């Protein structure tokens, strides 16, 4: 039974899909104006983890992830300024390129990096710029339903018209008026906390479209309502994103979608990944800590080390990225790799009690993931399992482990060599197991002789408290 923490109800709930056996997920994708950084990857890894786990549980998952290539303004934050510059347009002007060139370049980078991190691609990646007519239609409906108003070529959402506003984030109109600070005021808004659905384009604005309100461009929030309604329908199971999206982006999305459909709740489960820190501080361009995959690789780590490091922190805890933590992930990854490569079938018949013990470990692994995707717990169970099987090498069947690893890794998504009888010759694995036994019996003379024999066959022997592993010289 899978439980997930739902930001909407602020509690862990048993996950039940709307349609038995099927799960629909919408995840906010990248704003394609810059290279994705490791903080972004933390959120995308959470999306991937949940998708893979649901698939492991047997659900047929439909996963939509948008590409934001218009409308995300530099001031689309808590201040709801609606006065900043479009991030893509700003980059295009700076680099003397078209917004399209900028967007496609970073979209390609994003998709290539997904592959490197072994993140399953969404079933569809709709682009905002290809859905302008859908957005205009929604805005027209919102005006008709009394949720939006036109003002000087702009259209704003009137948040006082929507009784559920604030349910997701706690930012009701009243609490905003009392507690929040407005950094910029928009002259055309009735209420400064209203948010833009459509903005009038200045003449020199590169991206602009015709609309019933004149030439303009959409606000950031409306794109996700348009694309999620289009591809997943009026109500769906799961919506994901980083925690900074809770407000204003997702609060606005609920107001828009429900304002059109009158269906409450629009989304059953809202899942948000906590923002990652780097070396104890917010990621920052000026400090040079918005690390990318390329920085990780330059420092001698692989994308699989990064994947394991990102999985090692729970998605709702504040992960602190450090190079030491990545180093630990590298060691853990090597431990898993050695385990996969070195555990071989030395006894034809696995002992039944060990098989049952292994099943108990596996159950603990799934229990951890079923408990709101508790990856740190699941990984610690995996490391315990590795210790157990390393110390019981002679009575664990490689086929049992091979099948087990296939199941666990369908969710972890680590690219590792698979178990293979050929990897280490049987003669070597038998000698290794005999040597483990000799060491356990403190027969060091025998263990030294066996080491020499293994080495003469071209293998290096490495001892650890969890048993012996061998590697090709
Ligand atoms: P953006 O491309 O800026 O729209 O961000 C893409 C996704 O990454 C969003 O879901 C953000 O919430 C998420 N994100 C941005 N910074 C971080 C961070 N430091 N840690 C985790 N997720 C982040
Ligand atoms: Zn979104």
Describe the secondary structure blueprint for this structure.
Blueprint: E1 3-6, E2 11-14, E3 22-27, H1 38-56, E4 60-65, H2 87-95, H3 99-116, H4 132-144, E5 148-151, E6 154-157, H5 173-179, E7 195-200, E8 216-218, H6 220-232, E9 236-242, H7 246-261, E10 267-273, E11 277-278, E12 281-282, H8 293-298, H9 303-311, E13 320-321, H10 323-342, H11 352-370, H12 375-391, H13 398-412, H14 426-440, H15 444-456, E14 459-464, E15 467-472
Parallel strand pairs: 3-4, 3-9, 9-10, 11-13
Antiparallel strand pairs: 1-2, 5-6, 6-7, 7-8, 11-12, 14-15
Helix pairs in contact: 1-13, 2-3, 4-6, 4-7, 6-7, 9-10, 11-12, 14-15
The chain binds adenosine monophosphate and zinc ion.
Residues 28, 30-31, 39-40, 42-43, 241-242, 244-245, 273, 275-276, 283 line the site of adenosine monophosphate.
Description:
- This protein is of the alpha/beta class and 473 residues long.
- Helices cover 44% and strands 15% of the residues.
- It is built from 15 helices and 15 strands.
- It has helices spanning 38-56, 87-95, 99-116, 132-144, 173-179, 220-232, 246-261, 293-298, 303-311, 323-342, 352-370, 375-391, 398-412, 426-440, 444-456; strands at residues 3-6, 11-14, 22-27, 60-65, 148-151, 154-157, 195-200, 216-218, 236-242, 267-273, 277-278, 281-282, 320-321, 459-464, 467-472.
- Strands 4-3-9-10 form a 4-stranded parallel beta sheet, with helices on both faces. Strands 5-6-7-8 form a 4-stranded antiparallel beta sheet.
- A hairpin with a 2-residue loop joins β5 (148-151) and β6 (154-157).
- α9 packs across α10 (323-342) and α11 (352-370) runs antiparallel to α12 (375-391).
- The radius of gyration is 27 Å and the shape is elongated.
- The protein starts with a strand and ends with a strand.
- The model has no long low-confidence stretch (mean pLDDT 91).
- The chain binds adenosine monophosphate (AMP) and zinc ion (ZN).
- The site of adenosine monophosphate has 15 residues, from α1 and β9.
């Amino acid at each position: 039974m899978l439980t997930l923490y739902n930001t909407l109800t602020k509690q862990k709930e048993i996950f039940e899909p709307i349609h038995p056996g099927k799960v629909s997920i919408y995840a906010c994708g990248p704003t394609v104006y810059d290279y994705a950084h490791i903080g972004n990857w933390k959120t995308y890894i959470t999306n991937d983890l949940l998708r893979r786990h649901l698939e492991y549980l047997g659900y047929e998952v439909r996963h939509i992830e948008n590409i934001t290539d218009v409308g995300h303004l530099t001031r689309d934050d808590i201040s709801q300024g609606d006065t900043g510059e479009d991030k893509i347009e700003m980059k295009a002007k700076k680099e003397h390129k078209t917004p399209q060139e900028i967007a496609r370049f970073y979209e390609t980078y994003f998709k290539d990096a997904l592959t490197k991190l072994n993140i399953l691609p969404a079933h569809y990646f709709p682009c905002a710029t290809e859905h302008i007519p859908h957005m205009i239609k929604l805005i027209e409906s919102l005006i008709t339903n009394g949720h939006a108003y036109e003002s000087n070529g702009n259209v704003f959402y009137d948040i006082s018209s929507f009784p559920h506003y604030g349910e997701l984030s706690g930012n009701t109109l009243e609490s905003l008026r009392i507690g929040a600070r407005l950094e910029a005021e928009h002259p055309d808004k009735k209420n400064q906390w209203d948010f833009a659905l459509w903005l009038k384009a200045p003449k020199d604005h590169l991206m602009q479209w015709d609309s019933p309100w004149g030439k303009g461009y959409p606000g950031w929030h409306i794109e996700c309502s348009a694309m999620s309604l289009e591809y997943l329908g009026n109500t769906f199971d799961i919506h994901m994103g980083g925690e900074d999206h809770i407000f204003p982006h997702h609060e606005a999305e609920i107001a828009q979608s429900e304002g059109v459909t009158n269906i409450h709740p629009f989304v059953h489960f809202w899942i948000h990944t906590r923002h990652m820190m780097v070396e104890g501080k917010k990621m920052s361009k000026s400090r040079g800590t918005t690390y990318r995959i390329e920085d990780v690789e330059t420092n001698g780590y692989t994308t699989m080390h990064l994947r394991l490091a990102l999985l090692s922190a729970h998605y709702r805890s504040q992960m602190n990225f450090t190079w030491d933590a990545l180093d630990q992930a590298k060691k853990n990854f090597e431990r898993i790799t050695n385990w996969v490569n070195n555990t071989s079938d030395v006894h034809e018949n696995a002992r039944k009690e060990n098989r049952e013990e292994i099943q108990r470990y596996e159950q603990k692994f799934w229990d951890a993931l079923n408990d709101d995707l508790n990856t740190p717990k699941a990984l610690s169970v995996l490391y315990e399992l590795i210790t157990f099987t390393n110390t019981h090498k002679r009575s664990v069947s490689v086929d049992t482990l091979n099948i087990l690893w296939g199941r666990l890794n369908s969710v972890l998504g680590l690219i590792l060599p698979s178990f293979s009888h050929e990897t280490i010759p049987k003669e070597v694995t038998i000698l290794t197991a005999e040597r483990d036994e000799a060491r356990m019996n403190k027969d060091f003379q025998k263990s030294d002789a066996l080491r020499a024999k293994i080495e003469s066959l071209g293998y290096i022997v490495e001892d650890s408290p969890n048993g012996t592993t061998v590697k090709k010289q």
